Protein backbone atom coordinates (compact mmCIF):
# COMPACT_ATOMS: atom_id res chain seq x y z
CA UNK A 1 0.00 0.00 0.00
CA UNK A 2 1.29 3.42 -0.94
CA UNK A 3 -0.28 6.85 -0.68
CA UNK A 4 1.43 9.88 -2.21
CA UNK A 5 0.14 13.40 -1.67
CA UNK A 6 0.88 16.27 -4.02
CA UNK A 7 -0.45 19.68 -4.94
CA UNK A 8 0.55 21.68 -1.90
CA UNK A 9 2.19 25.07 -2.10
CA UNK A 10 1.95 28.73 -1.24
CA UNK A 11 -1.35 30.48 -1.93
CA UNK A 12 -2.80 33.84 -0.98
CA UNK A 13 -5.81 34.09 1.33
CA UNK A 14 -8.98 33.51 -0.63
CA UNK A 15 -7.20 31.36 -3.16
CA UNK A 16 -7.62 27.70 -4.09
CA UNK A 17 -5.54 24.57 -4.25
CA UNK A 18 -6.28 21.00 -5.25
CA UNK A 19 -4.46 18.27 -3.38
CA UNK A 20 -4.07 14.80 -4.82
CA UNK A 21 -3.67 11.49 -3.02
CA UNK A 22 -2.39 8.89 -5.47
CA UNK A 23 -3.04 5.37 -4.22
CA UNK A 24 -1.42 2.10 -5.20
CA UNK A 25 -1.35 -1.45 -3.94
CA UNK A 26 -5.07 -1.72 -3.27
CA UNK A 27 -8.44 -1.20 -4.93
CA UNK A 28 -9.38 2.36 -4.16
CA UNK A 29 -13.14 1.96 -3.91
CA UNK A 30 -12.80 -0.87 -1.38
CA UNK A 31 -11.48 1.54 1.24
CA UNK A 32 -12.24 4.89 2.79
CA UNK A 33 -9.74 7.68 2.20
CA UNK A 34 -9.40 10.51 4.67
CA UNK A 35 -7.62 13.86 4.61
CA UNK A 36 -5.92 15.20 7.70
CA UNK A 37 -3.81 18.20 8.52
CA UNK A 38 -1.38 19.21 11.21
CA UNK A 39 -0.19 22.72 11.87
CA UNK A 40 2.93 23.45 13.97
CA UNK A 41 2.18 23.06 17.64
CA UNK A 42 -1.31 21.73 17.02
CA UNK A 43 -2.87 18.30 17.08
CA UNK A 44 -3.63 16.47 13.87
CA UNK A 45 -7.12 17.27 12.60
CA UNK A 46 -9.26 15.01 10.44
CA UNK A 47 -10.92 17.28 7.91
CA UNK A 48 -12.53 15.13 5.26
CA UNK A 49 -13.22 11.57 4.20
CA UNK A 50 -14.86 9.63 1.40
CA UNK A 51 -16.10 6.11 1.97
CA UNK A 52 -15.27 3.24 -0.33
CA UNK A 53 -18.61 1.53 -0.39
CA UNK A 54 -21.09 4.28 -1.21
CA UNK A 55 -19.06 7.44 -1.63
CA UNK A 56 -20.46 9.08 1.48
CA UNK A 57 -18.42 12.07 2.57
CA UNK A 58 -17.45 13.70 5.83
CA UNK A 59 -16.24 17.25 6.45
CA UNK A 60 -15.06 18.86 9.63
CA UNK A 61 -16.86 22.08 10.53
CA UNK A 62 -13.64 24.00 9.96
CA UNK A 63 -13.69 23.20 6.22
CA UNK A 64 -17.35 22.52 5.47
CA UNK A 65 -18.56 24.55 2.50
CA UNK A 66 -15.01 25.38 1.38
CA UNK A 67 -13.40 21.99 0.72
CA UNK A 68 -14.64 19.13 -1.44
CA UNK A 69 -13.38 15.54 -1.60
CA UNK A 70 -13.66 13.59 -4.85
CA UNK A 71 -12.55 10.08 -5.76
CA UNK A 72 -11.45 9.09 -9.28
CA UNK A 73 -11.30 5.29 -9.35
CA UNK A 74 -9.94 5.24 -12.91
CA UNK A 75 -6.90 7.23 -11.80
CA UNK A 76 -6.70 5.63 -8.33
CA UNK A 77 -6.63 9.11 -6.89
CA UNK A 78 -8.58 11.07 -4.31
CA UNK A 79 -8.62 14.84 -4.59
CA UNK A 80 -9.23 17.54 -2.02
CA UNK A 81 -10.39 20.76 -3.64
CA UNK A 82 -9.73 23.62 -1.26
CA UNK A 83 -11.37 26.99 -1.88
CA UNK A 84 -11.54 30.24 0.05
CA UNK A 85 -8.34 29.37 1.83
CA UNK A 86 -7.46 31.12 5.07
CA UNK A 87 -4.16 31.53 6.94
CA UNK A 88 -5.55 29.07 9.53
CA UNK A 89 -5.55 26.40 6.80
CA UNK A 90 -1.74 26.45 6.80
CA UNK A 91 -0.57 22.95 7.71
CA UNK A 92 0.93 19.75 6.41
CA UNK A 93 -1.85 17.78 4.75
CA UNK A 94 -1.92 13.99 4.80
CA UNK A 95 -4.15 11.36 3.26
CA UNK A 96 -4.82 8.02 4.89
CA UNK A 97 -6.56 4.77 4.04
CA UNK A 98 -8.78 2.71 6.28
CA UNK A 99 -10.89 -0.41 5.92
CA UNK A 100 -13.43 1.09 8.28
CA UNK A 101 -15.96 3.89 7.88
CA UNK A 102 -15.43 7.63 7.75
CA UNK A 103 -17.09 7.89 11.16
CA UNK A 104 -13.69 6.90 12.54
CA UNK A 105 -12.22 10.22 11.41
CA UNK A 106 -13.78 12.62 13.96
CA UNK A 107 -12.99 10.24 16.81
CA UNK A 108 -9.36 9.96 15.85
CA UNK A 109 -8.99 6.28 15.06
CA UNK A 110 -8.88 6.40 11.27
CA UNK A 111 -5.84 5.44 9.27
CA UNK A 112 -4.19 2.10 8.59
CA UNK A 113 -1.80 3.60 6.04
CA UNK A 114 -0.61 7.18 5.64
CA UNK A 115 1.08 9.28 3.03
CA UNK A 116 4.12 11.45 3.64
CA UNK A 117 2.26 14.75 3.57
CA UNK A 118 2.29 17.93 1.50
CA UNK A 119 2.75 21.45 2.84
CA UNK A 120 0.04 24.06 2.32
CA UNK A 121 0.86 27.64 3.24
CA UNK A 122 -1.76 30.36 3.04
CA UNK A 123 -0.16 33.76 3.29
CA UNK A 124 -0.07 37.13 1.61
Short description:
The chain has 124 residues and is mainly β. 0% of the residues lie in helices and 48% in strands. Strands 2, 4, 5, 6, 9, 10 and 11 form a seven-stranded mixed beta sheet that branches.
Low-confidence stretches: none
Number of strands: 11
**Total helical elements:** 0
Give the distance, in angstroms, between the N- and C-terminal Cα atoms: 37 Å
Average pLDDT number: 96
Shape descriptor reads globular
| Residue share in helix | under 10%
Spatial extent as radius of gyration: 13 Å
Major sheet, described briefly?
A: 7 strands, mixed
Provide the β-strand percentage band.
over 45%
Structural class category = mainly beta
Order of helices and strands: EEEEEEEEEEE
Give a written overview of the molecule.
- This protein has about 120 residues and is mainly β.
- It has no helices and 11 strands.
- It has strands spanning about 1-5, 10, 15-25, 30-40, 45-50, 55-60, 65-70, 75-80, 90-100, 115, 120.
- The strands form 2 sheets. Strands 2, 4, 5, 6, 9, 10 and 11 form a 7-stranded mixed β-sheet that branches.
- The termini are far apart.
- The model has no long low-confidence stretch (mean pLDDT about 95).
Amino acid sequence: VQLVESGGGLVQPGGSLRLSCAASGFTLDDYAIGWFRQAPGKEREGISCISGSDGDTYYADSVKGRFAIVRDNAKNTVYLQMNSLKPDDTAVYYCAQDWGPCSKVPIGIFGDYWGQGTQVTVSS
